[in-house]
Specification:
Helix 7 (265-283) crosses helix 9 (324-333). It contains eleven helices and 19 strands. The strands form four sheets. The chain has a seven-stranded mixed β-sheet, covered by helices on one side. A five-stranded parallel β-sheet has the order 1-7-6-2-3. It is of the alpha/beta class. The protein has helices at 9-18, 30-35, 78-88, 99-104, 151-160, 180-187, 265-283, 310-316, 324-333, 342-350, 357-363; strands spanning 6-7, 23-26, 44-47, 53-54, 59-60, 68-72, 92-96, 108-112, 119-125, 130-137, 140-144, 163-168, 190-194, 207-210, 215-218, 221-227, 236-240, 243-247, 291-294. The longest helix is centred in the C-terminal third of the chain and has 19 residues, at 265-283. It is globular and about 65 Å long. It has two domains: 3-102, Oxidized Rhodanese, domain 1, CATH 3.40.250.10; 106-363, Metallo-beta-lactamase, Chain A, CATH 3.60.15.10.
Length: 373
């Protein structure tokens, strides 16, 4: 295959963002396609099992002969073979290098204005609805809940002349593999995690443990650590510059689910009670102008960062006004399916499991499902 017949995930995303009618041929199984596919409302999105490819002339039923066909699969291998068949038949086709795995790891970076000496950047993983943050003061940067690929954080810090000194995971993630270890390896940063992760089996000796009330020094300022249990026992947020990074506790339009650490109904109800206490005593009593910076959103392309005020979240999520028992009833009534491969992902993030490097990307499929309702 010629070099021109392959594009990277960033170019693929540029095309489906900016070029109406972009043809995306997804060559995965129908089940994989239905479970999770490219969010591209202006694209012509088709699945290979619905089409027949004639290697003699590259014909595809229903696809304009002059169209450029962007061929996509899980990791970029099967799609490469299909692209070669299309090229041999005279069609204009390109393979999306790295497939859905590479596309799902793209990050969109935007700055969020906050008070005080801090600069806060939000990194949106729009394919999966995951949010991570870089908080800077005095040229030193803290990365919160980094995604698996360290390069976007390193490149942005380098561009701004910052030095990444700390990586912080708000909790033991169940829906995505933490990138803290790789980011620390690339930058020499230390890794911090909540102390209560030890009770869940944390087996990562390189991690420094912190707890409620501790602070993280950043330049001439400090970031405050705030325990926010409920989604998990160790769930912990950060406060900086009038903004509260809430991780998986409170989202812009929903509330975290309480059942991923222990699915036992009694344990989940106890976690729901803890989450209600967290919300009422740690978050909702803050000023309404407090910026809420969550760990997730539903996913999809946005024109700006996810950074509502607390007042806006209160207006959007009426269940925040419920008493403890009704709150738990609502929270547990209609839980979504658990994240794909969540047991293995939790084990990787605890350091108790290992998988081949090539398999890590395949664990993260579909959108996140850390919210209730």
């Amino acid at each position: 295959m010629s070099q021109q017949a392959e594009i990277d995930a960033a170019e693929f995303e540029r095309r489906i963002r900016n070029e109406s009618g972009t043809v995306v041929l997804d060559v995965r199984t129908r089940e994989e396609f239905d479970d999770w596919s490219v969010d591209a409302p202006e694209a012509v999105l088709v699945n290979l099992p619905e089409l027949e490819i004639d290697p003699a002339n590259g014909s595809l039923d229903g696809i304009d002969r002059d169209a450029t066909i962007n061929v996509l699969c899980g990791a970029g291998n099967a799609s490469r073979r299909v692209t070669e068949r299309l090229l041999a038949g005279g069609r204009d086709a390109v393979n999306v290098e790295g497939g859905m795995i590479a596309w799902s790891r793209l990050l969109i970076c935007e700055e969020i204005p906050v008070d005080g000496p801090f600069t806060v950047l939000q990194f949106r993983r729009e394919a999966r609805g995951c949010l991570s943050y870089m908080v800077e003061c005095g040229g030193e940067a803290l990365v919160v809940d980094p995604s698996p690929d360290p390069s976007p954080y390193v490149e942005e810090a380098d561009r701004r002349g910052w030095r990444i000194v700390t990586c912080f995971d708000t909790h033991v993630h169940a829906d995505h593999v933490s990138g803290a270890a790789d980011l620390a390896g690339a930058t020499g940063a230390r890794i911090l995690m909540p102390k209560l992760a030890v009770e869940r089996g944390l087996a990562r000796p390189e991690v420094k443990l912190v707890e409620d009330g501790d602070t993280i020094e950043l330049g001439e300022a400090t970031v405050e650590i705030v325990a926010l249990p409920g989604h998990t026992t160790e769930m912990t947020g950060l406060e900086a510059g009038g903004a509260l990074i809430t991780g998986d506790s409170l989202f812009a339009d929903s509330i975290a689910r309480p059942d991923l650490q222990d699915p036992d109904p009694a344990a989940s109800r106890e976690a729901a009670a803890d989450l209600h206490t967290t919300l009422t005593s740690k978050i909702l009593d803050r000023p309404d102008q407090t910026l809420i910076l969550p760990g997730h959103y539903p996913g999809g392309r946005l024109d700006g960062p996810v950074a509502p005020t607390l007042g806006e979240v209160k207006a959007s999520v009426g269940e925040l006004a419920l008493g403890a028992e009704p709150f738990a009833d609502w929270l547990l009534a209609d839980l979504p399916d658990k994240p794909a491969n969540f047991d293995t992902i939790i084990g990787l993030n605890l350091g108790t499991e290992q998988v081949p490097e090539d398999d890590i990307g395949r664990l993260e499929t579909g959108g996140n499902s850390c919210a209730a309702g």
